[in-house]
Write the structure tokens for this entry.
Amino acid sequence: MTLGFVFFIFLYFIATAFVSRAIHSQGTISIFGSKMPVFAFAGVFSALANLSIILLVFIFGKIGFVTALVILLGQFPFIFFHMIGRYNAGSFSGMFINILTIVAISIIYINNSRIKKYQEHIRQQIVSDPLTGLPSRFACSETMNRYIKNSEKFVIVSVDMNNLKAINDTMGYEVGDKVLMELASRLSSITEFRSESKRDFLARLGGGEFCLLLRDYEDDNDIVEIIRLYEAEIKRKITIDGYDYFMTANFGYAEYYLDADNESSLYSSADAALHEIKRSGGESNILHYSKELLKTARFLEMERKIRAALQDDSFLFYLQPQFDMSHKLRGFEALARLKDKDGSFISPAEFVPVAEEAGIIDRIDMQIFRKAACFLGELVKKTSSDLMLCTNISVKHLMKNNFIEEIQAVLEQSSLPPKNVEIEITESIMIESAEKARQCIDKIRSLGMKVAIDDFGTGYSSLSYLNKFPVNILKIDKSFIDQIDSSESSQKYIEAIISIGHILNLEVVSEGVETDVQLEKLKSIGCDYIQGYIWGKPMPPDDAGKLL
């Protein structure tokens, strides 16, 4: 800063000196073969001098402005001396330029001061919580990043006040705000006396959520003891307008860099511990993050995304084509797709298990079936084609009492003929709920729809069960197709499934066909249909329509 400051002052005086010399010079300068009088450059040097003064004010603020004023005002006695003492009227222009420069730098300084004050005001709003005066989440993040940059050991503690919502709902937000201000004051008092060298950092993240950053501790037991100090202040009776209030809180914490190595992950880890306290029913209200908790946090986050997509009707359906062995299009399998906030796709391997465990897989089944059926219904109507729509139905969904009614409602809405619908179920249902499954399959068949056993050969099925269930299609799992060109036993196994299927008057679809070798071997052993990347990846509906 000092070097730049001196440079602009030096530049000003040098340029001013050249102005004086240029004005009084009678010489010429040759530029590109043309001679120009030296005094013609006086304006250039004058502009350079004024620019250096303006930059001095613009860059260095108050000190630059004061310095510029001293320099410019200090020139007035000399200008007056030349005008009056030496009767030099030319000096009048110099005085006029100085006055204009003073006006210009004054305007620049005043505007810059206003801008800086506004910026400081905005920053103060960003870094401070307007209700409690505590640092905000932004300030907390800045502090964490500073600790990380300095390689300091610290712990982040997420603090959640349990019964603030009840106070807001029953007594009003004004009382709730007073409770928060009292809590902020109490917690701040601990940060002030607990450690002088490494003071705790306290921030309010919003609502009843606070955040602590602890640096002065020895081990995990010490961390818990420190948290207990803050908890004791929270539990003390709060009296507002003659009414007593009693608060409790949960504390989830994570340590840098043992548990996480960046600001975002530290927040997530502490929050994961906090969520686990709530999920487990609050057996303990202080919990250290562990990697096992992250799985729970991810599960809850994924469940939230799934429920939001169901609520918004934003699940997408992709269609993967099925072909007969002569490459004639048979139909499509409808597959669920889910996009994240950033537009990227979430793998079905991530969201399907969560949906199954959360008991909402049937809602995904129906949303995908409805959208795909409406699309294919229009396509069949326009093209007069006889395409099949294959849709996956979970065991739980099939067992619902109103399953058939849901399917019928979609068929009526979509105008897709039942004969063009194929319901895919997993073979495990033949063991888990054999009798009820058979009844459901009978009802599906009675409506004119077909039934396929998906991923055949990977589960519990036996010939006796297969013979009892009135299904139409067997789908051979991709895991067997992958080995057909490298394992003779896999090829024989697939050949046996196809033979059994044909004996029982069932058609067979091989999933996951990707190579010409696999295709040729499946042709040679009599497979009816294939599905796989070799002839068609899962694609958006518009692309699927172009295959006709």
About this structure: The chain has a mean pLDDT of 87. The domain at 137-289 is CATH 3.30.70.270 (Alpha-Beta Plaits).
